[in-house]
Specification:
There is one protein chain. The chain is mainly α and 500 residues long. It is built from 26 helices and 2 strands. The chain is globular, with a radius of gyration of 22 Å.
């Protein structure tokens, strides 16, 4: 029964069942949490196992849905919670479900490892080596700060889990997620436009005032608000004021009258995650022949006011065009040189402006030079004890902070030292594998996976969210796993047909 169910493709007629399974996988977590924590964990783990065992072709689709829409269910049911810590705990169920699906998938892979191709086994082996290195630094950091170490462990390993889950699923079964992803994109875009044009209605229907009330309480207790107000001089009066933000978070556009914008947070309640999600779906829709839907989302992409997402879309589209005009190899070389130049220029301008992302990266770089072997996960970063007491005026004068903050790459090299290049190198290697497929086939979706991962890795110098927010690197690596796994499965099927 398992193979007969598993071999079904995800076609247009399967979109509704896939959506129902995805909703069921996460929508009831807040309700179960209010009843009993252990019951909630047990049920969510059981659901994740059932998805992989009974309908494995839906596993990657469910993971993508959970990343975008879990928090809207949490927000709607947030009145059932009394403290910010309870809310934060429930928001962690997306990691639990994705991790259990990954664990079951990997367990099934280990049972029939000999049935997989040598390339799959090689990729999985290097992935396990990467995981082992990260776990070593987790143990080192947990001695000093277990909570911070656990959060950074989740941030670093979830993209790897999503990649391996998608890789093994696509390599084993015929998985066609395009109808589902198009549907998810339309729903995501609709949520964004409803929030932008009918903000009060959106906050009311999602119980947003209660949800953001917990965030305000957490920010007050942790000192985040005081630190932000001291740094910016801006004092928010109401909730809407908290959504006002400098356009693209840069003073360079103030002369054009683009100083502030009312930011869109989306169903995942995070503007940067939502921005990367919109950027990903714009590229994906163009690549699968849905350009009109993609064009409809371009204004939303701008309104998200996320530099990294805009750079991702512009660079990948430029790479598509350049590949068609001058060929894949020259495009890759020129693209890598352009990204290096962009990183150097952005660091120089950031130091001149006193940009805190660049100051945070320089702090990580200085810490790396002081201790190339690293300190352990959770030691340093935005979760460190001294984050809210940083003197940004002194940091701007010095050209760096003491430690690493606001930069995923800076935080990783500060915490893991030279070992940080193991996960970063693994992700780059997988992007290059996808690029080789794109260079040979010209399939645009493979180009999204290849160039998208590379761009986001560079964006990680200037954002923590680029590597640590699942809809950024995690989503692109999920797509990378799908395209690589699908290619390997197609090769195996062709070889089997030829042998008959």
């Amino acid at each position: 029964m398992y193979p007969s169910i598993a071999q079904r493709s995800l076609s247009a007629s399967d979109v509704l069942p896939a959506l129902l399974i995805a909703v069921a996988s996460i929508a009831f977590a807040p309700i179960l949490q209010t009843a009993n924590t252990f019951l909630a964990i047990a049920v969510q783990s059981f659901v994740a196992c059932a998805i992989v065992i009974a309908t494995p072709a839906y596993a990657a689709s469910c993971a993508i849905f959970i990343l975008f829409f879990q928090n809207v269910f949490v927000s709607i049911l947030s009145s059932n919670f009394s403290t910010p810590s309870e809310l934060e705990f429930v928001k962690g169920y997306n990691f639990l479900v994705c991790s259990v699906m990954w664990l079951v998938t990997v367990g099934l892979y280990m049972l029939r490892q000999r049935n997989h191709s040598a390339e799959i086994n090689r990729i999985m082996t290097w992935g396990f080596v990467t995981l082992a290195v990260v776990m070593l630094y987790f143990v080192m950091g947990a001695v000093h700060n277990p909570m911070a170490a656990s959060i950074y462990l989740r941030n670093i390993v979830l993209p790897l889990f999503l990649f391996q889950l998608s890789l093994l699923t696509a390599a084993t079964f015929e998985v066609r997620t395009t109808p589902f992803l198009v549907t998810i994109a339309v729903i995501l875009f609709a949520c964004g436009y409803v929030e932008f044009f009918f903000r009060d209605f959106w906050l009311a229907v999602t119980n947003g005032y209660r949800f953001w009330g917990f965030d305000e309480l957490k920010a007050t207790q942790s000192g985040t608000w005081e630190a932000e107000m001291r740094a910016t001089g801006f004092v928010p009066v109401d909730l809407i004021d908290r959504f006002r933000f400098g356009f693209l978070n840069t003073p360079l556009l103030e002369d054009f009258g683009l100083s502030t914008i009312l930011r869109i947070f989306g169903p995942n309640m995070s503007p940067i995650s939502f921005g990367y999600g919109v950027g990903f779906f714009v590229l994906f829709l163009f690549s699968v022949g849905r350009p009109w839907i993609a064009l409809a989302a371009i204004p939303l992409l701008v309104l998200c006011s996320v530099k990294g997402a805009l750079i991702l879309v512009i660079f990948v589209m430029a790479a598509w065009a350049a590949t068609w005009l001058i060929g894949p190899v020259i495009t890759l070389v020129c693209g890598l040189l352009a990204l290096i130049a962009y990183a150097i220029l952005a660091i120089r301008i950031g130091l001149q402006l006193g940009d805190y992302h660049v100051l945070g990266f320089m702090g990580g770089w200085n810490g790396f030079l002081q201790n190339p072997l690293g300190r352990g996960l959770g030691v340093g970063g935005n979760l460190s004890e001294g984050f809210y007491s940083i003197d940004w005026n002194a940091a701007q004068a010095a050209g760096s902070v003491d430690g690493a903050v606001e930069s995923a790459v800076g935080v990783m090299i500060y915490q893991m030292g030279i070992a940080a290049f193991v996960p970063l190198g693994f992700y780059f290697a997988m992007a290059m594998r996808a690029w080789r497929l794109y260079a040979a086939s010209g399939i645009l979706t493979q180009g999204v996976a290849a160039f998208g991962v590379i761009v986001v890795l560079v964006n990680g110098i200037f954002q923590e969210e680029a590597l640590f927010a699942p809809p950024a690197l995690g989503l692109l690596l999920c797509l990378t796993g799908l395209v690589i796994g699908n290619h390997i499965r197609a090769q195996s099927d062709a070889a089997a047909d030829a042998a008959r």
